[in-house]
Protein: Glutamate--cysteine ligase
Organism: Hyphomicrobium denitrificans 1NES1
Amino acid sequence: MLSWATGGEFELGIYATLPFRSCPAIRLLPCEVPSHLSRNEPGYSGMSTREQAAESARIESRDDLVRWIAAGEKPKSEWRIGTEHEKFVFRTVSLAPVPYGGPDGIRALMDELIARYRWVAIKEDDKVIALKRPDGEKGGTISLEPGGQFELSGAPLDNVHETDAETDEHLREVLDVGEDLAIGFLGVGFSPKWRLDEIPQMPKKRYKVMTRYMPSVGSRGLDMMYRTATVQVNLDFGSEADMVKKLRVSLALQPIATALFAASPFMEGRPNGFQSLRSEIWRDTDRQRTGMLPFAFEDGMGYERYVEYALDVPMYFVYRNGNYIDVAGSSFRDFMAGRLRGFEGEFPTIDDWADHLTTLFPEVRLKRFLEMRGADGGRWGTITALPAFWAGILYDGAALDQAWQMVRDWTAEERGKLRTDVPKLALATPFRSTSVRDLARQALHISRLGLKNRRRVNAMSEDETIYLAPLERIAGEGRTVSDDLLQRYAGPWRQNIDHIFEEFAF
């Protein structure tokens, strides 16, 4: 559990002891809420009536799809950082997963967050499935993953100091409520103890469609849904060329991030043979919608090429009148031609396109921003390390140029082999005459340069490089979180996985 040290510090175990920072109130920006949530909530203030009407407009041609993505372009002064982090929820007495219902379940946790901290419920039918801030207030959202993983989808923020404050506020709130409900929160990449049949299912309608479809397209899709957790970062781009360069760099370096954040070496109480089982599971989830996007490195890459890729990824559902209609495996191209089975003569809206893009799961996903998707879930220190790592590389021109020089001659085969080998070997993965550990050091050096150039300082005049400390320690020592967990398991834990819920919980 979290423990306080002298001098206003908190202990992060192998993540090092970092100073706790008390930050003033921050004016948050609105987060992106999926279109179906905005339609369900009459009071949602994220879009004006005119904007909502535009999102619901019928798609006339493929150019509308391209324009929708291109509308995400922003001047550099408006680039923001959005961080999402998931946590496993467990009973602190029995160490069992927490179901949705009951006086001390997930629903009760959300109800108490509403009562104590002024969150507002987002519902499907009578079920609370997410939380948002009251109308007129800026902030992120809290949502549920399929197996009850508890996620904060943070607001788009100017700098990592603000992300640190947002993360701190969120964790303080859930720990406060969790203590009274005997609920704890665990930050790793894969459920270390529970079998798949022990995991409760959350009452979100889209997950029913995915649960039915996943076993038909891969062997690990249900594990992905119900037993993995991640930290992700969403970042902006300024133009089509800027998007392409950032996409290429972040795709090439995503296995490096996977290695640095590897934290899922257990399955059902025993070592699973991988440093990041979460990352390995994605390799056999649904290969039509996952992977390293080799076409992104080909000549002519741009918005239109990504649209072509997305059109070829099978659909999951169509959302109509509060319901998710199962069309899994069907073609969005057929939908655009009015030939979608069950929707003959009906044409998609921009809302449908936005929903479809959320069902693509490559290592880096393009919507109206870029999503970094390669990291395992982690504890307090590494949550803020991920946005620092990527903002340093992608948000400074000199750093981005250096990163591109680092990866530009990597072949598709080399990038693919990194993606294949890193889940098992992490920092020890060989690459040419070196290793991923050396690549990680190089990437961290570039990120540090970029963060220094950004010159975003906190009240103590510290820049954002302070958040790289846990990663620099991991790369410097050549020891991942998984390495540390495995050592504890074989040593002081005496092969009893239950200790992870005490020593590595928030």
